[in-house]
Amino acid sequence: MRTMTMIAAATLLAMLAQAAPAQAPVAYPAKGQSPAKQDKDEGECHVWAKNKTGVDPAVASSPAPRETGPAVGGGERARGAARGALGGAAIGAIGGDAGKGAGVGAVAGTMVGGHRARQNQAARNESAQQAQAGQLDTFYRAYSACMSGRGYTMK
Predict the structure, then answer these.
(1) What local confidence, expressed as pLDDT, does residue 18 receive?
(2) What domain count does the chain have?
(3) Domain-embedded: residue 132
């Protein structure tokens, strides 16, 4: 039950993250700045925010790298097989065939471990996407601070 709740929460977060990506702020020339002055200020504030935060929005706005393919390498399947074999052997011993029970338990444990591996992979992908959104937010806050300091209204 707890696993299903975690999956539902992760799915909801993923949908929200995709529905509301970090948006670049919009500058309004509140003090009557000319378009040429605004272009110059935007360029200078972009460079300042990039230097101040260490975030390049061109890089940070590209899709976050995602782990794809089979979820392997974390040991979830092996641990699941071992736990399943132990449990299966115990149950099989009651029925008179510990070896058969261990085999069945190992197969079931491997499947459970694979499920955990896929969940962990999805969580790592979500975490990478959230980190990227946080970087963009940091850059845009610095950019907005610079532009506000130059007399622009930011939204």
Answers:
(1) 47
(2) 1
(3) yes
123 by DSSP, 3-state: which?
Answer: helix
The answer to whether position 6 is within a domain reads no
Is 143 or 12 the better-scoring residue by pLDDT? 143
C-alpha closest to that of 49 among 130, 155, 150, 153: 150
**Range of 122's domain?**
26-64+73-154
Q: 55 lies in a domain?
A: yes
Q: Is the dihedral of CA 107, 108, 112, 113 positive or negative?
A: negative
Residue 145 C-beta-side C-alpha neighbours within 13 Å: 12
Separation of alpha carbons 140 and 51, rounded Å: 13
| Cα gap 60→133, rounded to integer Å | 8
* Residue 9 lies inside a defined structural domain of this protein: no
Residues contacting residue 121 through CB under 8 Å, at least 6 positions apart: 67, 71
Give the global pTM: 0.54
Neighbours of 19 (CB within 10 A): 7
